[in-house]
Amino acid sequence: MKTSLIYGLYMALAGLLLNLGLYFAGFHSEVEKLGTAQTISTIAGIVFGVTLLVLGVKARRAEIPATEDFGYGRALWAGVQIGIFAGIFGVITNFLYMGVINRGLKELMVQAQIAKWEALGMSSDRMEQAEKVMRTMMHPALQAVFGLIFGIVICSIIALIVAAFLKRPASDNLPPPVAA
């Protein structure tokens, strides 16, 4: 459990550091740069997620004696646990980033979406209705719930794949017992 907690925390901190990097590089300050920031976040998030899940499951596997089976189920559960903790810590770091560090990001996201709708020729009435829904969905409590669920689901999907490669059967090559 401790290993899963640590790697879940690492995953959330990696996401926070990525957001801080984008913030200080100016990608979270202009509507025009927000699309690029989202692309960078998506790609880096997948890389961080896969890397930390692999490292976390390997660390958990190393804790299990070679004489015990570390099958697909155990490897999957280790990955899912990492995803659960990453989701919990990710909600906290996201709240910290959007609520304390970069309070203007939500408004910037709304403005970027409105610009996309205008480019598509959406009517002002429909844009107004859609904006209300978007602002409702950006409420911190809803973001926390959806962020937690989304994070756990994505990590679990990745863990399904990672577990297939990191499972380990019990070893039959045991050293001979030492005479007392």
SSE arrangement:
Elements: H1 2-24, H2 31-63, H3 72-101, H4 105-120, H5 124-137, H6 140-166
Helix pairs in contact: 1-2, 1-3, 2-3, 2-4, 2-6, 3-6, 4-5
Question: Can you walk me through this structure?
Answer:
With 180 residues, the protein is an all-alpha fold. The protein has one domain. Helix content is 79%, strand content 0%. The chain has helices at 2-24, 31-63, 72-101, 105-120, 124-137, 140-166. Helix 2 (31-63) runs antiparallel to helix 3 (72-101). The longest helix is centred in the first third of the chain and has 33 residues, at 31-63.
Low-pLDDT residue intervals, each spanning 5 or more residues: none
Q: Give the N-terminus to C-terminus distance in angstroms.
A: 35 Å
Name the average pLDDT: 92
The domain count comes to 1
The percent range for helix content is over 70%
Please count the beta strands (DSSP E, at least 2 residues each). 0
Distinct helical segment count: 6
Output the helix-strand order: HHHHHH
**Structural class, from secondary structure content?**
mainly alpha
| Largest β-sheet summary | none
Strand residues, percent = under 5%
Write down the overall geometry: elongated
Rounded to the nearest angstrom, the radius of gyration is 21 Å
Provide a brief overview of the structure.
By secondary structure, the chain is an all-alpha fold. The protein has helices at 2-24, 31-63, 72-101, 105-120, 124-137, 140-166. The chain has one domain.
